Amino acid sequence: MYIAASRTSDLANGTGRKPALRRVAANVVALGVVSLVTDISSEMVTAVLPLYLVLGLGLNPLQFGLLDGLYAGATAVVRVLGGHLADRWRRLKAVAGFGYGLSAVCKLGLIAAGSSVAAIGVVLAADRTGKGLRTAPRDALISLSSEPGTLGRSFGVHRALDTVGAFLGPLVAMGVLALSVGSYTSVFFTSFCIAALAVLLLVLFVRDHPVSVARAGVSLRAAVNLLRSQDFRRVTIWAALLGLVTVGDSFIYLLLQRRWDVAATYFPLLPLGTAGVYLLLAVPLGRLADRIGRWPVFLGGHAALCLALVLICGPQAGFWLAVVALGLHGVFYAATDGVLMAAAGPLVPSGLRATGLAVVQTGQAAARMLSSVLFGLAWTLWDLRPAVFVAAGCLATVAVAAAIVKPVRP
């Protein structure tokens, strides 16, 4: 089964030749559906967690930054391990499936944690461990199932399906909260049931992609040796530097809530603005990246985030500025998430694809973990606006430097 995205043939243009159809493989679509269902589950939790921790448990910005950093950065510890095991065992699907299963079980862990901040931190770390284990093998499956010239489009299709789940998750969370009269436990249990369904879909419909490579050629030393390649090393370093100056999603939504005094009832709707734009632009920007270059599109996404930060804390506070800021946040994700993997994938041998992508993801995740802690500290010490403007200035500086260096060659 293929989703065909064919162009007008050269024969119709009088050239007498027929080009190969540009297609997105069925395996990519199946992985996208699994991610769709998984994201409904995870975004249900993500949508209510900032409000639960800050308003429900009374955490200050620094405490929330530490937990948010843990939530974002725990994946950094295990991404290379997950990619290495998937490549060494030649079982991309199995390692990814274990990661999906671990994250599903952690939804029940949130119920058991109750109001204990320490226990919640442990559960969030375990949940992100599951994400870290599954991400590199999943992206390697997408990369290996696609033609080199359509990587941007393939990742765009996957991320678009993934974002449908991100769009539906907050709506489901709001529905569960309404029916359960504000019970967070009901949200976490429903999230677990949906995550379990995603694991079942993975088992039934996703095909593995074995690679003929000797096990001896897949080692942690081989992962380190990937960094000897100048192109791969530069992509990894600049992705990490940009991650270090990126403000996390939860902080973006908290900034919007504080600036526009969004009621707690409507707080879970804020991610929908991001998800809606991401859904609309993931495939077009993926195709644009295939056409004009993946690095310019990647940097363009960071420029959109920088502008969103300026609008959030600018002198004006109109409703439409909040809408535009959320839209720019969606542009940021559509132009960066899958595009970075499409840019890094061809720089890695097929037998080390999961390991190589994990190295890039690890650097980025570790940097974002530190970024969350630093931004939470800056907000606590300097207040909201100074912290945001410093973050926007740092992001603009690094993005301009990355544009000058151009680590990815056309």
From TrEMBL:
It is found in: Cell membrane. The keyword RNA-binding does not apply. Keywords: Membrane, Transmembrane, Transmembrane helix. Its main location: membrane. It comes from the Bacteria. It comes from Kutzneria chonburiensis. This is MFS transporter. Residues 27-410 form the Major facilitator superfamily (MFS) profile domain. InterPro entries: MFS (IPR011701), MFS_dom (IPR020846), MFS_trans_sf (IPR036259). The chain crosses the membrane at residues 20-38, 69-86, 98-126, 160-181, 187-206, 235-256, 262-283, 295-312, 318-344, 388-405. It is a multi-pass membrane protein.
